[in-house]
Amino acid sequence: MKNEFDADVELIASAGGVYEIMLNGRTVFSKKALNRFPDDGEIVSLIQV
Q1: What pTM does this model have?
Q2: 40 pLDDT exceeds 90?
Q3: Which of 9, 11, 34, 36 is the most exposed place for a label (fewest CB within 10 A)?
Q4: What is the mean pLDDT of residues 31-47?
Q5: 43: phi then psi, degrees, rounded to nearest 5
Q6: CA 6: distance to chain centroid?
Q7: Could you give the CA distance from residue 6 to residue 38 in angstroms, rounded to a whole number?
Q8: For the chain, how many structural domains are there in total?
Q9: Average of pLDDT values for 12-23?
């Protein structure tokens, strides 16, 4: 994905199953808010919007 979007990816370790995708300071996907992991291709489609 880094090559496709020229993105810097960072893993921040935490507790409680928090899984969030942020782009330019904006939350694109939040497992905590939606209570689920993203579907296949969901993150890419959210970023391309």
Answers
A1: 0.72
A2: yes
A3: 11
A4: 91
A5: -65, -45
A6: 15
A7: 21
A8: 1
A9: 83
Among candidates 32, 31, 27, which has minimal Cα distance to 47?
27
Q: d(Cα 13, Cα 45) in Å, to the nearest integer? A: 25
Instruction: Name the nearest CA neighbour of 19 among 3, 1, 2, 42.
Output: 42
To the nearest 10°, report the CA torsion of 44, 42, 28, 30.
-140
* Nearest one of 35, 29, 38, 42 to 16, comparing CA atoms: 35
Domain around 38: 2-48
Determine phi and psi for 4, rounding to 5 degrees: -70, -35
